[in-house]
Amino acid sequence: MGYTPNTTGTNGSTSTRAVALVGPAGTGKTSLAEALLYASGAINRQGTIEAGNTVGDASPEARSRRGSTEINCMHFDYLGDRFALIDTPGAAGFAADGLAALPAADMAIVVIDPAPERAALAEPMLRRLDELGIPHAIFVNKIETARSGAVRNLIAELQPMSREPLALRQIPIWEGEQVTGYVDLALERAYRYRPGKASERVDMPGAVLEREKAERSHLLETLADFDDNLMEALLMDEQPDPDTIMADLAVDTGSNKIVPILLGSALTDGGVNRLLKFLRHEAPAPAAAGERLGLAEGGALHVFKVTNAGAMGRLALARVLGEPLSEGAELLVDGEPSRTGSIFFMQGDKTAKQAAAAPGDIVAVAKVDGARAGSLLGGRKTSLRGEFGVTPPVRNAALAITTRDRKDDVKLSTALHRLCEEDAGLHWLQDDASHETILRGINDEHLSVVLGRLDRRYGVAVEGHPPSIAYRESIRKPAGARGRHKKQSGGHGQYGDCVIEIRPLGRGEGFRFEDRITGGAIPRQYIPAVEAGIRDAMEKGPLGFPVVDVAVTLTDGSFHSVDSSELAFRVAGRMAMAEALAKSAPYLLEPVMRVSVDTPSGTGSKAGSVLSSRRGRILGLSPHPDWARWERVDALLPEAGIHGLDAELRSLSQGLAGYHAEFDHLAELGGKQADEVVKARTAQAA
């Protein structure tokens, strides 16, 4: 069943506020989305991840791994107000989807669990939200599993990670070792959790009075930093008016001056209704998101994802901004007018066709073929300041893939193009040197899911293996050789003859060809053919790899007035170069990457040890230039040491460390390692 929104809320608003659920993997974002849908009446039965019957995470990949592999969009109404939910994946390998959709949200809810030792997992998202300027709050989920003192310790861990002050809105009520409810600090009311129902208001327990007073004072002092009247009232020991407190909370939260913290449990519905009320009163209107995305005037459509799955074909997932959007509306795509097709509201994997969408709605739009993720599309009267770009995560995992059935080769490129179009963390290319199809993704888990999707959706089964390393070879000493190609087989024969000298060049100088032919020993029209033959021979040197950093001088040769041809001299050039290379002491070169590892403070030395164990040379360990309490390790690492590096770095840093690598130079590879590479190449050729 699809979602059919109300046309107008009770407050007269016709706009929809979008809320993104973000945070580390395993904290219960999809379960919280399910709880919000159930508590608001959008669904009549609350599903669970274990049962595989939630509205979100309906794809086979998400169901099988019991975790989100793509964003899920949902809608609900609450007390006459309209909301759109964007449930984002928490696992690093699927982060690109969420990062692309995040700027479209009016507010983000960072979902975490109450264990203080896991607080660091929220830091990358808190940092990203600060960078984007998106108002956000923290929801401490699974509060029923909290240990005594966990909330206070959690806040102490989180505050250094946040640019804005944290504002604790609730404190837990304990009965023995169990959290049974909470105190709302702004309203000074106590509530008891009731599994499957809204919380029940109860008398304030005497055991929490002292802490309630201290935490409420801290909350008010935080708000007073942005309200002079409230500051004056506190200095005069006056009790602030509740309406003033609630108004300050709404303004400061919506303008991203504070980060509220709420408590609850998605599985038992504890605190879920309180979260709904928080969103209703304190989530900002869509106008701020439109301005942040670059909408100055008029209406626009912010496309944050493209999908190619299902019977409806290509759909653009987007947020409507500024003005309503109707089917058939004209939008400018790359400067060219394009009319929108059908408009669908989404409830997980279910869709409902609608004639129009209101400002703020998140919809799937057909026939916007030129749109891509990140596009901000407006009409002729729309004024845009430019598109809001989000850099996708670094693609540090790579696989060389081949189809199991050669008949699928034609389908493979089409399927890869469509998958990459809808996943900003994915990229593919055809490597001309190795003749391999290379698929790049964020990590191994990401690529594994993509390969399954490739088979399920498009019927293309592939095998994957690590891509070939771009080894090269060069020479140590000068050498000379003659190449003579002579063939007579009736009629015109073939004759080409050339003499060359070769010598090594400095690293990175490439290839140099010099013609020193005198007296017409080789006619001018055949000299380019000699050079072409030399280049042919350099594609595969004596060790089996392309040759670099060599200078070749053409010194002599001979020709036949009838039998000589460009082909004959090209063959002669190839023969001469192959012989000369074999005599010039060839040796192997391996690509070396410059690697920068970003890792939490205290783990930099461990990261350095990982790099060293992979033949890396550490260049430096220093504080991160932009992120407080993080470190950066710079190193030079052979490309052979890159495979599997991401997983090893994440294992020593709670999954937080990452790296960026780019080619730096070629370096000599000798000894046993070089012998093994050459042996493997010979076996491959055989």
Rg computed from alpha carbons, rounded to a whole number of angstroms: 32 Å
Number of strands: 36
Mean pLDDT: 92
Question: Within the largest sheet, what's the order of strands?
Answer: 2-3-1-4-5-11-6
End-to-end distance: 59 Å
How would you portray this structure in words?
The longest helix is centred in the C-terminal third of the chain and has 18 residues. This protein has 17 helices and 36 strands. 28% of the residues lie in helices and 32% in strands. It is α+β, with helices and mostly antiparallel strands and 686 residues long. The strands form nine sheets. It has a seven-stranded mixed sheet with strand order 2-3-1-4-5-11-6, with helices on both faces. Strands 19-18-21-14-13-22 form a six-stranded antiparallel sheet.
Could you write a compact summary of the structure shown?
The protein has 686 residues and is an alpha+beta fold. The chain is built from 17 helices and 36 strands. Residues 1-13 have low confidence and may be disordered.
Spell out the blueprint of helices and strands:
Elements: E1 16-22, H1 29-40, H2 60-65, E2 72-78, E3 81-87, H3 95-101, E4 107-112, H4 123-132, E5 136-140, H5 150-158, E6 166-168, E7 170-175, E8 178-184, E9 189-194, E10 197-202, H6 209-224, H7 228-235, H8 242-254, E11 259-263, H9 272-282, H10 286-293, E12 295-297, E13 300-307, E14 315-321, E15 325-326, E16 330-333, E17 336-339, E18 343-347, E19 350-354, E20 356-357, E21 362-366, E22 376-378, E23 383-384, E24 397-403, H11 409-422, E25 427-431, E26 436-441, H12 444-458, E27 462-465, E28 472-475, E29 479-487, E30 494-504, E31 511-515, H13 527-538, E32 550-558, H14 566-583, E33 586-600, H15 604-613, E34 617-623, E35 630-638, H16 645-651, E36 658-669, H17 671-685
Parallel strand pairs: 1-3, 1-4, 4-5, 5-11, 6-11, 31-32
Antiparallel strand pairs: 2-3, 7-8, 8-9, 9-10, 12-23, 13-14, 13-22, 14-21, 15-20, 16-17, 18-19, 18-21, 24-26, 24-27, 25-26, 28-33, 29-30, 30-32, 33-35, 33-36, 34-35
Helix pairs in contact: 1-9, 6-7, 13-14
